TrEMBL record:
Keyword Kinase annotated: yes
Domain HAMP: 173-228
Record protein name field: histidine kinase
Catalytic function, reaction form: ATP + protein L-histidine = ADP + protein N-phospho-L-histidine
Signal peptide: none
GO annotation, cellular component aspect: plasma membrane
Gene Ontology MF term list: ATP binding; phosphorelay sensor kinase activity
Originating organism: Bisbaumannia pacifica
Transmembrane region(s): none
Length: 452
């Protein structure tokens, strides 16, 4: 499974953690380095003290130098002194120029101070003669690194916390944007906006959340289609039931008024049968459209089924000529005999109904790759080209159909197509050049369990 969202989150988190550790280490070392030097103003103060001590020493005023040192020690609460460094090499050894130049009794004011030593260092300001030194223990107020604990706390706690909070906000927004869109879409859908979709709002993003949005869109589209189909079926069914109910109501009124009942009872019975058939066909159609059911997995001979349906049609329409062109055998596996029989019967009855008396209906079954093709040709008036697809809509009837078959309700072809689709087949209509309509049905020879 491609875990795009996992890698999109894991990558920044891993890289961000490594970068954060490096930044904290770098800033900590750099900050400690910068804080290890005496401030510039304190360096100048130490140099001024050294210059004062050198001036008093050069003047030979020992008493003034002693008083000045005593006052400085008292004021800064530290130790200070002026000393000489007379280094005498022994055993004929000599002092190198590098040693003489760099020799000190204490630290130079510009050198780095070790912040972790408990005692303050002794600073050395060498006089011009190179042998006399002004030494002073660095006063506490001049010691660098006084804010090092606070800086370390900031770098080790405040900075990581701020970065993690920022990263959490970015991740939260990255995750919540599609979830928020899904929430708004779900709310809008629940309030009746069946056309709401989410995937297009997420742009080029491609991860598990966009897959969830695409799944929501498919669900919304399917659910919207079901709701609209149910509304349309209910509205059409209500419209179709209104006429027979009106006739029954009129017949009952006549019966109540004492008019001969024998004339109206057959009428009421016929209207009741019509309504029962209408409701049953509508429920079957709704079941096929909404539930997408898995029908029975039967094995049958399509030739035998067609022979039976054609015999019934010949009996019902004795003044029609039904020509059958069928192979000796047409085996079908994993299909539904009931659904196929109803679909074929609806198509052949429809062809016989619109073919005038004495006309010819041709039923031809041929073998095709992976299935069978059935052509049913009639000699009826045909259908306008712009309505060839609409005749498969529930309750739709052409003007010619309403005139020729006023008792029809326009569910036969719609139901036949849905039944064929339920077993993996298809159905279409076309006008014949010689006149009449051709209905073409295709049946799969074998329907797998996965397709079912």
């Amino acid at each position: 499974m491609n875990r795009r969202l996992f890698w999109k989150l894991c990558g920044p988190l891993a890289l961000g953690t490594l970068a954060l550790v490096w930044v904290i280490s770098f800033l900590g070392a750099e900050t400690e380095q910068q804080m290890s030097f005496i401030a510039e103003r304190h360096q100048q103060t130490l140099k001024q003290w050294g210059a004062t001590a050198e001036r008093l020493h050069a003047a030979g005023d020992e008493a003034a130098l002693a008083d000045w040192l005593e006052a400085l020690q008292a004021r800064e609460e530290t130790w200070a002194a002026v000393v000489r460094s007379d280094i005498r090499p022994l055993a004929g050894s000599e002092l190198s120029a590098q040693f003489r130049e760099g020799f000190r009794l204490g630290r130079h004011v510009e050198w780095k101070i070790h912040l972790y030593f408990a005692d303050n260092p002794i600073m050395d300001l060498t006089f011009a003669d190179g042998r006399t030194h002004f030494l002073i223990t660095l006063p506490q107020r001049m010691r660098p690194g006084g804010h090092l604990p606070e800086v370390k706390l900031t770098l080790k706690v405040a900075l990581p916390l701020a970065v993690l909070v920022l990263l959490s906000v970015v991740i939260y927004r990255h995750l919540m944007h599609p979830l928020r869109q899904l929430e708004l879409a779900t709310r809008a859908f629940s309030e009746g906006n069946l056309g709401v979709r989410v995937r297009a709002l997420l742009g080029n993003r491609n991860d598990e959340l966009t897959a969830l949005a695409a799944t929501f869109d498919r669900m919304a589209e399917r659910t919207g289609e079901l709701i609209l189909t149910q509304r349309r079926l209910i509205a059409d069914l209500s419209h179709e039931l209104r006429t027979p109910l009106t006739r029954i109501d009129m017949a009952l009124s006549c019966v109540e008024e004492g008019i001969e009942t024998q004339h109206f009872l057959p009428r009421i019975r016929r209207e009741c049968r019509l309504m029962r058939a209408l409701v049953e066909d509508t429920l079957t159609l709704a079941w096929l459209e909404n539930e997408k059911p898995s029908l029975d997995q039967d094995s049958l001979d399509l030739t035998d089924l067609l022979d039976s349906v054609i015999d019934d049609a010949r009996y019902e329409y004795p003044d029609h000529r039904l020509d059958a062109e069928l192979p000796a055998q047409a085996a079908i596996h994993g299909s539904s005999q009931r659904a196929l029989a109803q679909a074929v019967e609806n198509v052949i009855r429809n062809a016989c109904h619109y073919t005038p008396a004495g006309g010819r209906v041709r039923v031809a079954l041929s073998t095709e790759a992976h299935g069978y093709r059935l052509d049913v040709d009639d000699q009826g008036p045909g259908v306008p080209d712009d309505q060839l697809e609409r005749i498969f809509q529930p309750f739709y009837r052409t003007a010619q159909a309403r005139d020729d078959k006023p008792d029809g309700h326009g569910l036969g072809l719609a139901l036949a197509r849905r039944q064929l689709e339920a077993v993996g087949g298809w159905m279409r209509a076309e006008n014949r050049p010689a006149g009449g309509l051709r209905m073409t049905l295709w049946f799969p020879a074998t329907r797998s369990v996965a397709e079912a």
